[in-house]
């Protein structure tokens, strides 16, 4: 029997379904962000699957496309999303527009408690000519479990080198409730802006590797 979704609006899929292409469409005023004392939003569209036994998960990789023609609003974002129902903790990692100049950064947000912790890493540059020829950039985001119960977040842009953008300690270590309830992993997109209409993000799929 499959586990029931801990996020009511999220789309639940099998690992097999998520391994192929899909799209995530984010309406305006959608986000995943927790900021004390009272801001706690988790209304962005998510397409995810349940990993019941976290001890067998080596890594999960989401592949999606950043399109400069449609990513036009502050805080437009997409990437991989992990949700831990036992603690209501979550991690998201991918690409996010961080200022009004449409600067794109590789982004990780870790929320293991009452507040989100956001970190950014410069996105490898692209020439104006390359952007005119093809507005899409292929982004791969990989979350890998280590032997100490932590996670390493890596990103590859347009077939380049893997870049380590975040290491998160103690995610899985010694948490019996987490081991009991597992983790949900998938792709997400969000458009916190009140303007711009829907943001549609194309995914090639998610790849799961076991230990």
Automatic annotation (TrEMBL):
Signal peptide: none
Protein origin, superkingdom: Eukaryota
Record protein name field: Concanavalin A-like lectin/glucanase
Species this chain originates from: Ascobolus immersus RN42
Lineage start: Eukaryota, Fungi, Dikarya, Ascomycota, Pezizomycotina
């Amino acid at each position: 029997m499959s586990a029931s979704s801990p996020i009511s609006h999220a789309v639940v899929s099998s690992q097999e379904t998520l391994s192929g292409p899909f799209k995530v469409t984010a309406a305006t005023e959608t986000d995943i962000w927790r900021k004390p004392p009272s801001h706690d939003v988790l209304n962005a569209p998510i397409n995810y699957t349940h990993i019941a036994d976290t001890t067998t998960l080596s890594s999960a990789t989401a592949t999606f496309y950043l399109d400069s023609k449609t990513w036009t609003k502050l805080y437009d974002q997409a990437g991989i999303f992990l949700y831990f129902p036992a603690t209501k903790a979550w991690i998201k990692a991918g690409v996010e527009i961080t200022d009004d100049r449409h600067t794109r950064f590789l982004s990780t947000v870790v929320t293991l408690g009452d507040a989100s912790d956001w970190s950014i890493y410069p996105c490898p540059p692209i020439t104006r000519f390359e952007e005119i020829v093809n507005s899409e950039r292929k982004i791969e985001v990989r979350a890998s479990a280590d032997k100490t119960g932590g996670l390493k977040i890596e990103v590859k842009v347009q077939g380049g080198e893997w870049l380590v953008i975040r290491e998160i300690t103690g995610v899985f270590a010694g948490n019996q409730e987490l081991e009991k309830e597992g983790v949900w992993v998938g792709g997400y997109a969000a458009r916190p802006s009140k303007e711009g209409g829907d943001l549609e993000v194309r995914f090639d799929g998610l790849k799961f590797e076991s230990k």
